[in-house]
Design brief:
Largest sheet: 6 strands, parallel
Distance between the termini: 75 Å
Structural class: alpha/beta
Number of domains: 4
Number of strands: 18
CATH architecture of the largest domain: 3-Layer(aba) Sandwich
Radius of gyration: 28 Å
CATH class of the largest domain: Alpha Beta
Shape: globular
Length: 595
């Protein structure tokens, strides 16, 4: 019997994202399904039967007999097969099944009736270990391991087990992380959120504040009208930022360096940082089709995180990228949150329809059809001499983050049309989700957004978020939801809960750390106090019983130990300099001259 259509209909009610994913797969060629003596389907893959060919139900009862459900943890099953071992476990408690192979799930959906498994079973199919572990606390897992499934997916489950160890380690011991911020641009707020989120997670975080040099950067670009000379000056400035980052890293001694999109690091600077024998990662929170500088640096980073999948990853392979990993944008709840706005602010920002963003081509072409509505625009680049531009509320001045949060809170409908410089209306290649999507949801605001291919993996469409696939549908959706405030409130509440559960910057940073260190367990285990404490490190390198080591011990108890700490103390002293003091003063002078 073929259960597939019936099962898809049932799964769509409980997990529409998974239903959409499995519908895109045909029955796998590498799985053979035979019948047991009792006439039950038994999957075989790579010559391995995933259940007994004779009595699969009896076998399932035997292998699960000693498993005990726990009141304070969730039963998690490693391996799906055709679910015979899951049925007896489901009698004890709800179950989460982790299965790495979509092919197994596709065969299961065709050959096994899904009805007895729902709603008690949550299927996590073909999800990356770091993604799973960032959203679910493994210390609360009561794990049952289905041995035949683990034999088939051995590499995946090994990675999952290592990921659990990494998650436990970084939950109990802080890392030192250096965040390299961009000089300017839309990724700068994300860099600030990453810095905050890593601190909230309990790590020791420092940053290279490249944005403080923005005025100097732009002054250099304006210093000459000769393009070739301007490019030389810009390159020298980028090199200086690389030197600044290297100096900061040498002093801070991080366990990880994280650079954000448009961080001013050349390949040469990145390779210098890698000499510290620590991972150097990059989060490219931009559209790869719009900003192409990624081609110059992708080969240099140890880990390259992207907000786009598919085509971008294929391009990264051709450009020499090593480890690339899909990591979508997110919200930062300490900033993006529901507000009870005072009356003056509510009156200032309220509107039936609000849009916050720059005047990209597709928006300028699309929004005039909304001029018969109470439609307000905030952002930059709008032509205020046009009927559409007259809806602009901020005179093309920069909108602060706090103002943005106020706008999201005050609007009845927040319109979210992703930017495009050359499309009319909706970008047919829309394969990333902008931060606004998560931020509006975190403010418990209602939004309408253009359909994006990856959205189905982030939200339940129509239940947690509402989309339009054409400009006509956009207008119809606006008219419908303006007349249905209760439905707006229900959907906003659902999207808010989903974001807090799975789509915060903290989730993304946790996922990033697990992925970076999942194959570096030895590195984590070898992190000791001498690596974290610059003074202890210097003493260990000099040797405790050497003249220099004994001299350095005099600085124990200093809250922030550095070369400057020693130089300042020497300056305040009296008498002739000994050999150690002379060396320290010479080093301090050299560094000052270099800076």
């Amino acid at each position: 019997m073929n259960f597939f259509d019936k099962n898809i209909t049932l799964l769509e009610k409980h997990d529409p994202a998974l239903a959409a994913r499995v519908k895109g797969h045909d029955f796998p060629d590498n799985i053979t399904v035979n019948l047991s003596r009792e006439g039950l389907p038994i999957p075989q893959i790579a010559g391995i039967n995933l259940h007994s060919q004779y009595h699969p139900i009896k076998e399932a009862e035997q292998i699960t007999r000693d498993f005990k459900a726990s009141d304070d943890s969730r039963t998690v099953v490693f391996g799906l097969g055709f679910g015979y071992h899951i049925s007896p476990l489901l009698k004890l408690s709800e179950v989460t099944v982790i299965e790495p192979l979509m092919s197994i799930f596709r065969a299961f959906m065709e050959k096994v009736d899904l009805t007895p498994f729902l709603p008690g079973v949550r299927f996590r199919i073909a999800e990356k270990p770091a993604s799973l572990l960032a959203r679910y606390e493994p210390s609360q897992w009561n794990i049952f391991r289905h041995i035949p499934s683990i034999r088939i997916g051995e590499t995946y489950y090994q990675q999952l087990e290592k990921g659990i160890s990494v998650r436990n380690f970084i939950s109990n011991k802080s890392l030192r992380i250096l965040v390299v911020k961009p000089i300017y641009g839309g990724s700068l707020p994300t860099a600030n959120y990453c810095f905050d989120a890593l601190k909230i997670l309990g790590h020791e975080v420092e940053s290279v504040e490249c944005d403080k040099f923005a005025d100097g950067f732009f002054s250099l670009k304006d210093a000459t009208k000769i393009r070739q000379n301007a490019e030389v000056l810009s390159k020298k400035f980028i090199n200086l930022m690389g030197e600044l980052t290297a100096a900061k890293a040498a002093e801070f001694r991080p366990d990880l360096i994280l650079a954000l999109a448009q961080a001013p690091l050349s390949p040469e600077a990145i390779f210098r940082l890698k000499e510290l024998d620590i991972p150097v990662a990059f989060w490219f929170v931009e559209d790869f089709r719009t900003l192409a500088y990624w081609k110059e640096v992708c080969h240099a980073y140890d880990h390259f995180f992207t907000i786009q999948n598919g085509d971008f990853h294929s391009n990264l392979i051709s450009e020499g990228g090593k480890d690339f990993y899909y990591l979508p944008q997110a919200a930062h709840p300490p900033i993006h949150r529901p507000l009870n706005l005072p009356i003056p602010k509510k009156n200032k920002y309220k509107a039936s329809i609000s849009f916050m963003g720059a005047a990209y081509h597709n928006r300028v072409q699309s929004f005039p059809r909304l001029l018969d509505l109470d439609f307000k625009i905030w952002g930059t680049g709008w032509n205020t001499d046009t009927p559409l531009g007259k809806r602009l509320q901020n005179k093309n001045k920069r909108v602060t983050t706090q103002e943005t949060v106020d706008i999201y809170n005050a609007a009845e409908i927040n319109l979210n049309l992703h930017s495009s410089s050359h499309h009319y209306g909706i970008n047919p290649d829309g394969d990333f989700v902008n931060p606004r999507t998560f931020e509006i949801a975190a403010c418990k605001g209602f939004q309408l957004l253009d359909y994006r291919s990856d959205l189905v993996n982030l939200f339940n469409i129509n239940e947690e978020i509402t989309v339009f696939r054409s400009l006509d549908e956009m207008k119809d959706q606006i008219d419908f939801y303006l007349n249905n405030p209760d439905l707006r409130r229900i959907i906003s509440e659902r999207s808010y809960k989903r974001v807090l559960k799975e789509h915060t910057i903290q989730h993304r940073m946790q996922e990033m750390l697990i992925h970076v260190f999942i194959n570096r367990l030895n590195f984590l285990e070898n992190i000791d106090d001498s690596r974290r404490d610059p003074l202890a490190y210097c003493i260990s390198k000099a040797g405790e019983n050497t003249e220099l080591g004994r001299y350095l011990k005099e600085f124990e108890g200093e809250k922030k130990f550095s070369l400057k700490t020693m130089a300042d103390k020497i300056h305040s002293g009296e008498g002739a300099l000994d050999d150690n003091e002379t060396l320290i003063m010479m080093l301090d002078q050299l560094i000052q001259e270099k800076v």
